[in-house]
Amino acid sequence: MSRSDVLVDADWVQENLDDPNVAVVEVDEDTSAYDKNHIRNAIRIDWTKDLQDPVRRDFIDQEGFEKLLSAKGIANDTLVVLYGGNNNWFASYAYWYFKLYGHENVKLLDGGRKKWELDSRDLVAEVPQRPATEYKAKPQNTAIRAFREDVVNAIGNQNLVDVRSPDEFSGKLLAPAHLPQEQSQRPGHVPSARNIPWSKNANDDGTFKSDEELKALYADEQVDLAKDTIAYCRIGERSALTWFVLHELLGVENVKNYDGSWTEYGSLVGVPIELGANK
Amino acid sequence: MCGAKAGGPDASTIKPGETTIQGSVTRDGEPVTGYVRLLDSTGEFTAEVPTSATGQFRFYAAEGTWTLRALVPGGSADRTVVAQQGGLAEVAIAV
């Protein structure tokens, strides 16, 4: 797999905005950002409403994903190009989610909304309409999704990559510094996890670093990519970006994203927790 | 709720005793929209917010020395700030 199989740049998006077989989709951490403006012809998926079960803490099921994509006008053979704010955190999450339900024809806009804005490219308020489809999803591919038992069993056995900021990892903060302090019952990290913040994967403008830089990053942190790997953060969106880097850009097999992440693990009764900085 | 609102968390969500860093970004004296990154004392990325329409931003942080990096179309600028526990640090960034 090469970068061009999973990433497109802003010029490519600009040239393909009117192709009906391409669906540009904004998935933004700030779900209201789309209302203000967005890339022309882009539709929105709201990660808080569209991608979560309305009652349980879980994803929408296979049928729900079919309904969502059908209503959004995405067909099984549509090339979906995802982008979003905050360095593509939630666009990466949506990418992983599309893969979870077997949509293979999906790519990320490198740099996301930030790079597009910093390039001073056009954004519009007009909301496009795509004709409805009859989308068929596959059952979840749990080879890329980790659950809490997987994480507990991975302690000391597999790579655990905690992609939160150093202060969240050490237990100083419970949440990123731009968000209200809330969520898990206890601070800290999963024992044996390496702290490799998601941000080390990206340049200031939100584009991904080169394959060589990324390989060096994980090698320098003594992550043996021949072993199975679980990435986690607070709610699984930043770790989806790291999953994208390892699984999609570097082609590492057996990488899972733990979407329960610290808000689940840090609230579990009886599991081991470690405090302190990366060793 | 996890959305990073432009300008950072809403002022109504500030809790008493929270260590807060906030300010605004300007170019030639006028507010400019873009992004502000919060880097820790070792230069490591900690957080990022888009600025509000009037160039404002806000972070919750821990006490210590931080660097704010403003990114706007065609430019960037860094400012160092020392945050006190439970205090409010105001920073004006001219790009």
UniProtKB/TrEMBL annotation, chain A:
Highest taxon of the lineage: Bacteria
Catalytic reactions of this protein: thiosulfate + hydrogen cyanide = thiocyanate + sulfite + 2 H(+)
Annotated region described as Disordered, given as residue ranges: 180-205
Domain Rhodanese: 18-125, 154-274
Keywords in alphabetical order: Repeat, Transferase
GO MF, one annotated term: thiosulfate-cyanide sulfurtransferase activity
Keyword Chaperone attributed: no
PANTHER family: THIOSULFATE SULFURTRANSFERASE
Protein name in the entry: Sulfurtransferase
Source species: Streptomyces albidoflavus
Automatic annotation (TrEMBL), chain B:
GO BP annotations listed: carbohydrate metabolic process
Disordered as annotated region, ranges: 1-27
InterPro entries reported for this sequence: DUF1416, Ig-like_fold
Species of origin: Streptomyces gougerotii
Stretch forming the signal peptide: none
Lineage, opening ranks: Bacteria, Bacillati, Actinomycetota, Actinomycetes, Kitasatosporales
The protein's name in its UniProt record: DUF1416 domain-containing protein
Gene3D superfamilies recorded: Immunoglobulins
